[in-house]
Amino acid sequence: MMRFPVIAALLAAALVVPLPQAAAQASWRGEPGKHVRAELREEIGERAGKTVRGFYTARDNAPMWLNKYARPSGAATLLLYRMQTAQFDGVDPDKLGIDKLVDLAERAQRGEIKDVARFEVALSDTFAEYVRAMRDGPRLPMIYGSPALEPVIPAPRSVLETAAQAPSLESYVDGMEWMHPLYAPLRKAMQDPAYSETQRRQIWMNMARLRAIPAMPMGRYVLVDTASAHLWMYEGGEPVDDMRVVVGNDAGQTPIMAGFLSQAVENPYWLVPDDIVQNEFADYILEYGPGWVADRRYEVLDSWEPDAEVLDPKTVDWQGVRDGTVSVHMRQLPGGSNFMGRVKFEFPNPQGIYLHDTPAKDLLKKTDRQLSHGCVRLEDAATMYRWLMGTPIPAAAKNAPPEQVVPLPEPVPIYITYLTVQPKGDNLVFLDDPYARDARVRIAAAD
């Protein structure tokens, strides 16, 4: 049974200490602190597993979840509140033994040193279990280009040490900083009665998508959201820049996927997808004649191999191409109106998705930007180039050789997701479902 009044009372006690009590008690870092450490040492010896024992031994048995008056801190009480409603994280609160923890917190609040130590150790042990369960919680599918891109389930001691190193443990718990930065605002909204059941279900689905993205507070990575057609560049857990993008249309939806951006290609060809050649270009050439190919700066190739032969469009059976009985390939020459613009950024994936510049800047002014054949068109490729490469994009040179591959100084993860609910300030913004993915998802909503 969830005991929110108890937690609320504990939170008030943790955050506000009456003046007479504050004057009467010394900090646990002083003389009472020796008793707490001694009792913790004994409690750890009796009950704690190897992980918790090693964590506290390394910090000379200093408590993590107590305030200076040797009572449960604000961080501890916020954590209890989160864990009481762990079903919103795909974790069963009963399996965490939450009722027992609340009882221990109540006893610890009375100040008996043995109870204080028992609470401290039990909370650390349960916190590690909770974080690991959240990282392993239910998530919607994402295509990972490498196992290194998947969410990591940390070792219990790593969970505790990372929390202990936070500048503010209370902020760390409140922001659920062991998850992706966008997770906590959605999580808090699940307990807000202002949101309808329909909205809560939508929030729940988007939390499941965010659980598919690892927490990388110190890393650099790119996040692309196809629902809002927007891109963010993250450093140290915070977005440092963002831009509009154009993503796949309904017929060519950009998939939910992850990869490592590994290289920039300057002055690129546009390698036209074969289905576009068959279903679109062949019709144009049949209607306007083979001259259509050169007029729009395309070339016809007999293969995608580096030594592919360039074919004369007049020699190609374009009706056969349209019918699917003849196979040719096409590319658009660099420069001018090339669909790739000045640069594209590649990450290996069998879906053939990449980021690229675009001359069609008018499309980026539209509200709904699900307009491409699947790849991600950038509003400001020059900014992306500088951020990824550490140098400005080279000026366009006349007669520059095509397809100049420039490796990135280091690979940068990219996560492409689909978020129809996003935080904006202290509120949430509910977006349209352009790919109708929310409507198709079958995932049990949290109570």
UniProtKB/TrEMBL annotation:
<comment type="similarity">
    <text>Belongs to the YkuD family.</text>
</comment>
<dbReference type="GO" id="GO:0071555">
    <property type="term" value="P:cell wall organization"/>
</dbReference>
<feature type="domain" description="L,D-TPase catalytic">
    <location>
        <begin position="220"/>
        <end position="396"/>
    </location>
</feature>
<keyword id="KW-0133">Cell shape</keyword>
<dbReference type="InterPro" id="IPR045380">
    <property type="entry name" value="LD_TPept_scaffold_dom"/>
</dbReference>
<keyword id="KW-0573">Peptidoglycan synthesis</keyword>
<protein>
    <submittedName>
        <fullName>L,D-transpeptidase family protein</fullName>
    </submittedName>
</protein>
<dbReference type="InterPro" id="IPR005490">
    <property type="entry name" value="LD_TPept_cat_dom"/>
</dbReference>
<dbReference type="Pfam" id="PF03734">
    <property type="entry name" value="YkuD"/>
</dbReference>
<keyword id="KW-0732">Signal</keyword>
<keyword id="KW-0808">Transferase</keyword>
<dbReference type="GO" id="GO:0016740">
    <property type="term" value="F:transferase activity"/>
</dbReference>
<dbReference type="GO" id="GO:0008360">
    <property type="term" value="P:regulation of cell shape"/>
</dbReference>
<dbReference type="InterPro" id="IPR052905">
    <property type="entry name" value="LD-transpeptidase_YkuD-like"/>
</dbReference>
<keyword id="KW-0961">Cell wall biogenesis/degradation</keyword>
<feature type="active site" description="Nucleophile">
    <location>
        <position position="375"/>
    </location>
</feature>
<dbReference type="InterPro" id="IPR038063">
    <property type="entry name" value="Transpep_catalytic_dom"/>
</dbReference>
<dbReference type="GO" id="GO:0009252">
    <property type="term" value="P:peptidoglycan biosynthetic process"/>
</dbReference>
<comment type="pathway">
    <text>Cell wall biogenesis; peptidoglycan biosynthesis.</text>
</comment>
<feature type="signal peptide">
    <location>
        <begin position="1"/>
        <end position="23"/>
    </location>
</feature>
<dbReference type="Pfam" id="PF20142">
    <property type="entry name" value="Scaffold"/>
</dbReference>
<feature type="active site" description="Proton donor/acceptor">
    <location>
        <position position="356"/>
    </location>
</feature>
<dbReference type="GO" id="GO:0004180">
    <property type="term" value="F:carboxypeptidase activity"/>
</dbReference>
